[in-house]
Amino acid sequence: MAIKQLTETIINQIAAGEVIERPASVVKELVENAIDAGATRIDIVTAGGGKNLIRVSDNGSGIPSDELTLAVARHCTSKLTDNVHDIRALGFRGEALPSIGSVSRLSMKSRIAEADSGFEVNVHGGRLEGPRPTPMNGGTIAEVRDLFFATPARLKFMKTDRAEATAISDVVKRVAIAFPHIRFSIAGSDRTPLDLAATGTGSTGMLERISQVLGKEFPENAIAIDAMRDGVRLSGFAGIPAFNRANSLQQFAYVNGRPVRDKQIWGAIRGAYADVISRDRHPVVVLFLNLDPALVDVNVHPAKADVRFRDPGLVRGLIVGAIREALGQSGIRAATSGADAMLNSFRLGGVEPIRPAAQRWQGAAAVNQNYNVQQSPYRPFEAEPVASHGGEGFAETVQAFLYDGATALATDTRAGMAEAPQELLSAPLGAARAQIHSNYIVSQTEDSLVIVDQHAAHERLVYEALKNALHSKPLPAQLLLIPEIVDLPEEDVGRLVAHAETLARFGLGIESFGPGAIAVRETPSMLGEIDTQKLIRDLADEIAEHDTSDGLKAILDHVAATMACHGSVRAGRRLKPDEMNALLRQMEETPGSGTCNHGRPTYIELKLTDIERLFGRR
Is the model's pTM score more than 0.90? Predict the structure, then answer.
């Protein structure tokens, strides 16, 4: 078959297959162009999930009339210098507009501040028309109709209008977080209007914008991050472990202001929360990485969602270390969503209103004059039989029983009801007041009620103590009678040998055994008999992907977690008040004690205002 030159339209349609995957991709490219133009307001209108109409209007600097035709031509851009590694704008490839125009009906209208009127060009299936004058205010209006009409096969891969509209909203929200000084609005016949008002610059404005996108709960359950290492700065907010989600959709990462979905960053976030969140749960984080553009390659894929760092180990270490340090310094905190869930569980629907006590006693007396409170299975307390109150009526007998029972409970030292010192009430977890169902500690602070799962809490305390003991000094190793030889590719052998010193601290002694093998001479004693071959291969894969040997540490931590689970205070054990208070104080001093080793919360805090709301006092 003869080789021939492809037409410009075919070239643009091929490029569109990489750049324009769905309507949300079009919105992303047009919104990024508006941001690069200095817009402070961006309005998006869609119809048919973006397949029928996408209109993006901005108040940016606009495009001069003599450059409009270049704007929709391939490989024409104003955002790139002669140095392809010095990229400081969101767009730079010069592919988006010609790609969009090759598969849709594109109209570009723009007016600069100095011009008397705007100008318009149209690109229909790759055919250019214009420019011609058009009335409009300053800025740019990009309108895309009949997306993929020129490549109808692509329409078969589109989802429902609702799904595509949701994807557009997600893209806009993801971009909006990085630019809180810009107002974003989305409207159309296929969606509920969304308006993200500008919140200003600085950390306050950023947190307000994040609250607009993630909800008002996030600021209450987030910790500020600000760290720097070797010219790379990390800032943003990390959710506390107890505030987590079932998927990673609420994890936002930005590199020099560009929203990215990078596997290295996601892996670092997972590693930072490995000890405090269950594997099937995901933290909520918003992270911003700022570094010299020469240290990161954003030209990996036309969609610009993937990046490559010159030193990925530095970036991973910075993210893991900064998040762990922030979690450790934040002290013990419970997710505010736990109180809301607790309140919801108390709300009853369709239940007969509770009558006043006197009416209930009188009604019961009218039904059964021979009621014996001491024999009733529904008696209020397991107390000693109440002395006979001769001649008293039924209501008086019940009231006397309740009074005596409550007095007995209040004076029971095992229930922890004695008056607590003020310093205990001022502590984050307060003073222990009672233990219910032999597993839950109820404590009181100055303005809240706290319920602690004693087994989960003590499990975390034991686990942290074991970890500190494990990693404070080299771990004991057992010498293998016959070294185990593991065959590996040469590059994997080199990576493992480079980390040999670190692995030795955890009890794994390795050395090179020729160009394509590793000799394992020692293994960690606490692991007992292990599959050495699998362990070495897994470590080699992890080092190849993340340039870290944390896998062995994770295995040892898992063993420590198992030991902690079996060595902690079991559910069902009665605790004395001093023991309960000692457990609360240890929790306050131990990083990560807000969740157990499996990622479940160890305590729930209910503010007094929530309790008053529960009883209709607010």
Answer: no
